[in-house]
């Protein structure tokens, strides 16, 4: 069988990223996982050898009680030029201590969309500054920072802290205006400050896009990674594409990374997937759109996905919603939910900004209100997936090799629940001084339980040895563990 150049490229990509996954996970040649001081989660079964009366559970974030955070005024009327928020990107800029947001503003018919800028000191109260840069709807008294005159923008904005070219510190992918709907290309723009933008090149850098888009610098792969969308099989179903680049201009040919399968109900499509590197893997926020008649018809909610190498993705939580639609008509997210790129770790929480629509996907076609806004939901640090025991359960890890000085565990063992930890050798024998009888007892709900045995937390004598951890869970939730360095 002849192998074409595209197939060769995919084979090479698989080899490269498979090698990266192996490097990240690690093995010492004896089968033990080299985890060093990297945090270990339980989104998949990679670190787990044995479970007894313990279940992997996807946890949902809690929606902020003060939603919506941003709702444009005047409220959009059917057929009007009043703007709504469509999609966007958000980040925390440590250099200046500000949360920054770039959102797509769309008129009712989505035929003259713009990119707008907003900022916040606390991530809750947002300012829409009067920048006076671009005339829109007859005035420059607005927060518009980029526009191309027609069509959807679907902006994906990132701050590139790794680049040496400060004039291109901020980078944007955006969907070009054109007549190629539903498939249009992706262009790029750059900025020194995130406010004053210039188009980068005139030709498309990514061939296919059907909005929205996302982009990040992946420090592990040392590449820019973009997620776009296309209609697979002509105009049959929406799927998620992924491309990679070394320089933000030359991108690999798009590869489908997620498509509906036989386990999905008839008519299900994937609108887009925002994502974030996290611990030893990646979490994705898949916008799931149902076009078949039923309770979720014409709605969009978010499912949670996971990958260890950034290319091969699995869906978590038995494909149940991670961020659900609002339960009652008129709620800010009753019709549609789209995560903004990308969630931010704030203290001991993960903040997930999202655009919620009161209206259904085809509100425009039915001359109904779209009614969108920027909203927030939060989840505890490492809280995406936990190992739960309704009663007494046991978790045993695979053999691992660590390089830390103390064991730190993220667990909820409140209200008379408990977690006990003991350390085994590679032959499943309890190591002297590290049995559950010696201590290892955790109680309360904390993201950083420091485990001690006989009053001592030092585990440095176990460094570079093949060991296992055995967790005894009693009505508790286990989120993660890490062998950390002493402070």
Describe the structure.
The protein has 487 residues and is mainly beta. It has two domains: 5-59 and 385-484, Jelly Rolls, CATH 2.60.120.260; 62-380, Glycosyl hydrolase domain, family 43 (Tachylectin-2, Chain A), CATH 2.115.10.20. 4% of the residues lie in helices and 44% in strands. The protein contains one helix and 36 strands. Strands 2, 4, 28, 31, 34 and 36 form a six-stranded antiparallel β-sheet that branches. A five-stranded antiparallel β-sheet has the order 3-29-35-32-33, with no helix packed on it. Strand 6 and strand 7 (98-106) form a beta hairpin. The longest helix has 21 residues, at 5-25. The protein is elongated and about 75 Å long. It starts with a helix and ends with a strand.
How do the strands and helices of this protein lay out in sequence?
Layout: H1 5-25, E1 33-36, E2 40-41, E3 48-52, E4 55-58, E5 62-63, E6 84-93, E7 98-106, E8 114-120, E9 126-127, E10 144-147, E11 156-159, E12 170-175, E13 184-191, E14 197-199, E15 206-209, E16 214-218, E17 223-232, E18 237-245, E19 255-258, E20 268-278, E21 281-290, E22 300-307, E23 314-315, E24 336-339, E25 344-346, E26 349-357, E27 372-380, E28 385-388, E29 392-397, E30 400-402, E31 406-413, E32 418-425, E33 441-442, E34 444-450, E35 467-474, E36 477-484
Parallel strand pairs: 1-30
Antiparallel strand pairs: 2-36, 3-29, 4-28, 5-27, 6-7, 7-8, 8-9, 8-10, 11-12, 12-13, 13-14, 13-15, 16-17, 17-18, 18-19, 20-21, 21-22, 22-23, 24-26, 25-26, 26-27, 28-36, 29-35, 31-34, 31-36, 32-33, 32-35
